[in-house]
Design goal:
The protein has 237 residues and is mostly helical. It has 7 helices and no strands. Among the domains are: 107 residues; 35 residues, no CATH class. α2 packs antiparallel against α3. One of its GO terms (cellular component) is multivesicular body. Belongs to the SNF7 family. Keywords: Coiled coil.
Length: 237
């Protein structure tokens, strides 16, 4: 059967935009190489024309240069055409990629929308409101418990707040009188110490070694504490 009817040939896939653009770019590079070679040849002819005197020889060089220049113009036209084709293919490729991106974005949005709908089915506004109300009730109960546990014992209920404020003001006034300008309490002031010593009938503290008064011997001298001094001879032995 295959020999009679033959085998159906598979069609080759059409070239993609990238393949077509790559092929055209290679052709453009080939044309550019040809134009560069023609430019080198034109420069050589220009130098020959400058060095050759006017006459048949110069005209022959000019005709060759004109032929090369015509070829260059032809190749430049082909190169411009190839560049235009490449530009059009790039625009098509850009549009194609944009459409693909849009398709992927739409697919992602549909998937996210479906997932959100499934999640919203499990979350209800009424349940959230009820939960918030229960939390507020629990907080109120907790505050009442804390107030109950923090209640003071053995405190009379008939205390007047105005009386308490008056006592507080009087206490602050007394504290202000006891404090001097330098911030030192009155019980640390020197005059208070002297009054306290006078009340207790205590002698003042000696400042240094007091000299023995006139008329007393060394044996009758007093030490730093006001007691009779012990003679040195007795200490030796």
């Amino acid at each position: 059967m295959k020999r009679v009817f033959g085998v159906k040939k598979e069609k080759e896939p059409p070239p993609s935009v990238g393949d077509a653009s790559e092929r055209i770019n290679k052709r453009g590079e080939t044309v550019d190489e040809k134009i560069k070679k023609l430019d080198i040849e034109l420069n050589r002819y220009k130098e020959q024309i400058k060095k050759t005197r006017p006459g048949p020889a110069q005209e022959a060089v000019k005709s060759r240069a004109m032929r090369v220049l015509k070829q260059k113009r032809m190749y430049e036209g082909q190169r411009d055409m190839l560049y235009n084709q490449t530009f059009n293919l790039d625009q098509v490729a850009f549009a194609s990629e944009g459409i693909k991106d849009a398709q992927q974005t739409m697919t992602a949005l549909k998937s996210a929308n479906k997932e959100l709908k499934g999640m919203m089915k499990t979350v209800k506004i009424q349940d959230i409101d009820n939960l918030q109300d229960e939390m507020m009730d629990l907080m109120d109960v907790s505050n009442e418990i804390q107030e109950t546990l923090g209640r003071s014992y053995n405190v009379p209920d008939d205390i007047d707040e105005e009386d308490l404020m008056g006592e507080l003001d009087a206490l602050e006034a007394d504290m202000g009188l006891e404090t001097e300008a330098d911030g030192v309490p009155s019980y640390l002031q020197p005059d208070k110490e002297s009054d306290l010593d006078a009340e207790l009938h205590l002698p003042s503290a000696p400042i240094g070694h007091a000299a023995a008064p006139a008329g007393r011997s060394n044996a009758q001298a007093e030490d730093e504490l006001g007691l009779p001094a012990v003679p040195r001879a007795s200490l030796r032995g």
